[in-house]
Write a structure and sequence with these properties.
heterodimer, A: about 200 residues, mainly alpha, B: Cytochrome C Oxidase, Chain A, two-stranded antiparallel ribbon, 17 helices, globular
Chain lengths: ~200, ~600
């Protein structure tokens, strides 16, 4: 007779792993990504609709956004490497790479913020109408999503250093990695979008 | 472990024996807080959604009764209105602006808080793990968060009722520019901000729930439970979750842009506005843009409300007519078709808002196409009960009632879906009558059917049948008496959202009819309170269950003990060997899904 539900639940999950099914939590992340794509699709299609209107004002993307793009691209590489090292049980390298990813994520947010300041200083504010308003909202919301990823990384990072029990499950870092690649890809899409449609 | 075959578990004797073993699942420590408040048990979360939904239904329903009082008797004063609404109904007469707030809140509360969270939240949480054979949701923690986000949304929405300038007004669709400009009306001030915050929390709740439902259905099914062996309830709840996960984020982006317009001086939706003698600097915005974003959710939302009711109805009708569901695959196919079409028809809400008329004709075609899957479903329900050995439980009656009002309300959808006829009918009582029947009343019927049917599984007791019959007959009669006449009013041109129609002499012909509608709505509301009494009374005093499977149903939830603990099955999760609709087959009344297909058994 089963006395602990949690035990049994994890058994069920383990059973599914053997059958090479995707882990439910990973799958949840993929569905959530679909949902986030819809949100940004809503925002960018609003952008497309509005860009056809008479008073639309185009803007130039601040240069700093290019640097932030490099930062987030690099962070995708480092999180990938950190997962590989975790699986190889190279914990020293893993911790270092997670820390680097974390730092690159923070750098991205800082660069975005400075980019916004640059835009604001050049006279693109929230008043009037045009691409500027949208970039503040869309890029701002993207930055919020990155921030969410940073918080997740921070938790994994802390666990990697002060966790008393050894974890062998790569699941959290895999899920965080999937999310991280998503916000990276999302930013690339947004950059291309701003350049082509803006 | 769950994947191993254990033939013993399939016999009903074992599940009877399990009754006495239910204490085993409580071995791990459960405090009051973890069991009843921050519970991660899907069954408790379902009950939390249901209880919150019932409270909201009483509030939202009470609003409609109170404003109906004024609509029926525009010249009278009612002290009770002043008691409830204070200076918004000074001297016992509702202020016209406040009436607009009331209809806004009535719509918001019933659409989102009752028929989305109360319906999907309850039955998706309750039935998905039980009917697919899972211990719990894929992520019980996210599931708990889903309820508490809903609770937070409820608190914010409730608090908006008590702010000085009143709750949001402008209709449940909160179109800008009215909703974007605080100076435009009282209801566009702090009430609107609270509305938007509450709805943002609500969207988060729905998404967390939806992610879990989809993942659980696709990943956590027990052995043998292939997709085409799932009960139709699960299929319906699956498509509902897909609709929600794909459409709610778009609504959220619309709300975000609206918040920017309200507080940060952007012009996403605002252009060339002159309000209270003041010219606003905003230019280049488009109010139509908001409508596109809103209705991209708004229309799927109709199906988010309707599909769970369809699923519950399919299951209840099949079980209680002791017949297999007619056209199982056609039912799934039509659910799928409705889901796809739901995303392609949003602009039929915008025929007269300045939408390109040529674009409108495309949306007419797509809108009318929805009649095809809807009709398939209706015919399948009718053929399911046709010549069945029907047990007229209150649940069955409400399920049949669902089919009835879904037909009546659906037919008028064909009128409204034509852009040319919509020029005459838009924003009239005809629209009010249409959507109340086809999605309001019908989904409420589906939900009530579900509550009556699964109440024994939820609480281990039956609801009172006599009260159930009174509830049903008064409600269905009342629903038709309230909404049928509204079609005539709408055809004559009576606009919706107007408190006082005495300015139009041509509408005087409806004076007595309006009184009649008001009286009926009071009676119907009273009967709903009786249902609430029945619900809570039966929870503690209802007749106790003596068998695990009171309805003789095939699905897995009835193989659990009468009061299942967290984890649902005390032993191993049963394995599934057949589809859930083997009723009256080979001379047997019902064959549970857990029973192996016999050697000489005929194919279904």
């Amino acid at each position: 007779m089963i006395s602990d539900v949690k035990l049994n639940y994890s058994d069920a999950v383990a059973g599914e792993k053997k059958s090479k099914k995707i882990h439910p939590h990973k799958f949840t992340m993929w569905v959530a990504i679909g949902s986030m794509i819809m949100m940004f699709a809503g925002l960018t299609s609003a952008y497309v609709v509005k860009s056809g209107q008479a008073t639309w004002q185009e803007i130039r993307i601040p240069e700093l956004f290019w640097y932030s793009t490099i930062a987030i691209l690099l962070s995708s590489v480092t999180i990938r490497l950190s997962l590989r090292n975790f699986k190889a049980r190279e914990m020293q390298k893993y911790r270092l790479l997670i820390a680097v990813t974390f730092a690159l994520g923070v750098l991205f947010i800082v660069l975005q913020y400075l980019g916004f300041q640059q835009m604001w200083a050049s006279g693109i504010t929230l008043s009037g109408s045009g691409a500027g308003q949208f970039i503040y909202v869309i890029a701002g919301f993207h930055a919020l999503h990155v921030l969410g990823g940073i918080v997740a990384l921070l938790i994994i990072f802390i666990k990697a250093f002060i966790g008393k029990t050894k974890t062998y499950s790569s699941l959290p870092i895999e899920i965080a990695g999937t999310y991280w690649h998503f916000v990276d890809a999302l930013w690339i899409y947004l950059m291309i979008f701003f350049i082509l449609i803006g | 472990m769950s994947n191993e075959v254990n033939p013993n578990i399939h016999s009903t004797e074992t599940s009877h024996a399990d009754l006495h073993d239910e204490h085993h699942v409580h071995h791990h420590k459960e405090t009051f807080i973890t069991k009843y408040v921050f519970s991660q048990d899907h069954k408790m979360i379902a009950k939390q959604f249901l209880a919150t939904g019932i409270i909201w239904a009483i509030i939202g329903g009470l609003f409609s009764v109170l404003f109906r009082l004024q609509l029926g008797y525009p010249d009278e004063t009612f002290p009770i209105l002043e008691t409830f609404f204070g200076r918004n109904a000074e001297g016992g007469r509702i202020q016209p602006e406040f009436y607009y707030s009331l209809v806004t809140m009535h719509g918001t509360v019933l659409i989102f808080f009752v028929l989305t969270a109360g319906l999907s939240g309850t039955f998706a949480n309750f039935l998905i793990p039980l009917q697919i054979g899972a211990r719990d949701m894929a992520s019980p923690f996210l599931n708990m968060l889903s309820y508490w986000f809903f609770f937070a949304a409820s608190v914010v929405m409730l608090s908006s009722l008590f702010v000085q300038t009143g709750p949001a007004s402008g209709g449940w669709t909160v179109y800008p520019p009215l909703s974007a400009l605080g100076q435009a009306s009282e209801g566009s001030k702090i009430g609107m901000d609270l509305w938007l915050i509450s709805m943002a929390l609500f969207v988060v709740s729905s998404l967390l729930g939806g992610l879990n439902y989809i993942t659980t259905i696709l990943n956590m099914r027990t052995k043998g439970m292939s997709m085409t062996r799932m009960p139709l309830t699960i299929w319906a709840l699956f498509f509902t979750a897909v609709l929600g996960v794909l459409s709610f984020p778009v609504l959220l982006s619309g709300f975000i842009l609206l918040l920017f317009d309200r507080h940060l001086g952007t012009s996403f939706y605002l252009s060339d506005i002159y309000v209270n003698g003041q010219i606003l600097p905003n230019e280049g915005g488009s109010a139509i843009l908001y409508q596109h974003l809103f209705w991209f959710l708004g229309h799927p939302e109709v199906y988010i409300i309707a599909l769970p009711a369809m699923g519950l109805t399919s299951e209840i009708l099949s079980v209680n007519s002791r017949k297999p569901i007619f056209g199982y695959m056609a039912m799934i196919g039509s659910l799928f078709a409705i889901t796809i079409l739901a995303f392609l028809v949003w602009a039929h809400h915008m025929f007269v808002t300045g939408l390109n008329p040529f674009l409108g004709s495309v949306f007419v075609l797509l809108t009318l196409l929805i009649a095809v899957p809807s009709a398939i479903k209706v015919f399948n329900w009718l053929t399911t009960i046709w010549r069945g050995n029907i047990r007229f439980t209150p649940a069955t009656l409400f399920a049949i009632g669902f089919v009835s009002v879904f037909i009546s309300g659906g037919l008028t959808g064909i009128f409204l879906g034509n852009s040319t006829i919509d020029i005459h009918l838009h924003d009239t009582k005809f629209v009010v009558a249409h959507f109340h029947l086809v999605m309001g009343v019908s989904s409420m019927f589906g939900m009530l059917a579900g509550i009556y049917h699964w109440f024994p599984k939820m609480f281990g007791r039956y609801m009172n049948n006599t009260l159930g019959y009174i509830h049903f007959w008064v409600t269905i009669t009342g629903a038709y008496l309230i909404f049928w006449p509204m079609h005539y009013e709408g055809l004559a041109g009576v606009p919706r959202r107007y408190l006082d129609l005495s300015g139009w002499t041509s509408f005087n012909q409806f004076t007595e009819l309006n009184k009649f509608i008001t009286i009926v709505s009071i009676v119907v509301f009273a009967v709903q309170l009786m249902f609430v009494f029945n619900y809570f009374y039966s929870m503690f005093k209802g007749r106790k269950l003596t068998t695990t499977n009171p309805w003789g149903a095939n699905t897995l939830e009835w193989t659990t003990p009468i009061n299942p603990g967290h984890g649902n099955w005390t032993g191993e999760i049963p394995e599934v060997h057949r589809w859930p609709y083997d009723y009256s087959k080979d001379g047997r009344e019902f064959i549970p899904q857990t029973e192996k297909v016999g050697e000489d058994e005929s194919q279904h």
